Amino acid sequence: MGEEKFTLILLFFGIIFFISLLQAKKVKKKEGYFLAERNLSYLYIFFTVLSTSIGSSSTILLFNLISKYGFGGVFLEIGGAFGLIILGLFFSKKLRGTNCFSLPQILGLKYGKRVRIFSSFFVIIAEILWLSLIFKALQTIGSFNPALFYFLILSFILSISLGGQWAIAKTDVFYSFLIFFSFLLTYFFGNLKLEGFINFERMDQGLLLSLFFSTFLPHLAGSDIWSKVLSSKDEREAKTGLIFAGLGKFFWGFLIFLIIKKFSFPNNGDDTLLNFIFSFPKIFSFLLILGLL
């Protein structure tokens, strides 16, 4: 990791901190911190849900699956896309109308205090598992520099703690543009010559369905996704943002498939994405790393 690249990463997180700090003044009240004062437009819902959905850990897995199974691997994204669209079309209005703060609170209203307590416990477990996936992905991306890994963890925690849901929504716009821009730029202008053709394995139908439902259900009834719905201005903004985010996931999965198909990049297990990134000239490699961060 060259000194100039580390400087650029510092600049990258400097931008994130600056955006988060600007939102800190908006989070003096609980509703402002947790739900952005219930004032997110459909564009913010679109960007923040999409950014939450296509993070580094899921992209590492997506590259692995598509490079091994071809288009069958895209069902990892297709399941989540359907979950978001169905949530937007049929459930977002009712969720937003509750004016609750969280998934457990909604369940508690319907099924009582005991269910609320149990669901809160399971949400905490789910969030711990989610964080472990993020830390694992950051460790994979930053493995070439151990000091960078700890810096990334600290930056991640601080960036989501300073300004609450407002900071998350605003920085997610930046994240979404960056990850799509980096991979689109690589697809259209990246120069990677590999010999031979890629031979995809046949995906078992059971695995395909497992991939679909493993992302469909969390996107349909995930605590992070529901918090975005509850943060929207109204039911219409929530519905529109979720549908657009679902379509964005379709596009993202198809883009990764096209990238692997174009460059005929072979499967290397969990290292597939990193091997792909570092096969390019430095400028493209660094851009892709920033996109994943």
Strand content: under 5%
Total count of strands: 0
- State the low-pLDDT regions, or none: none
What is the alpha-carbon Rg in Å? 19 Å
Average of the residue pLDDT scores: 82
The rounded distance between the terminal residues' Cα atoms is 15 Å
The biggest sheet amounts to: none
Tertiary shape: globular
Proportion of helical residues: over 70%
The SS-based structural class is mainly alpha
Question: Given the structure, what is the number of helices?
Answer: 14
* Order of helix and strand elements from N to C terminus: HHHHHHHHHHHHHH
Question: What secondary-structure arrangement, pairings included, does this model have?
Answer:
Blueprint (H helix, E strand, L loop, with lengths): L2 H22 L5 H6 L6 H12 L2 H14 L5 H23 L5 H9 L1 H29 L4 H16 L2 H26 L15 H16 L2 H8 L4 H29 L8 H6 L4 H11 L1
Note the main attributes of this structure.
single chain, about 290 residues, mainly alpha, about 75% helix, globular
Polypeptide structure, described:
By secondary structure, this protein is an all-alpha fold. The chain is built from 14 helices and no strands. The radius of gyration is 19 Å and the shape is globular. The two termini are 15 Å apart.
Briefly summarize what is shown.
With 293 residues, this protein is mainly α.
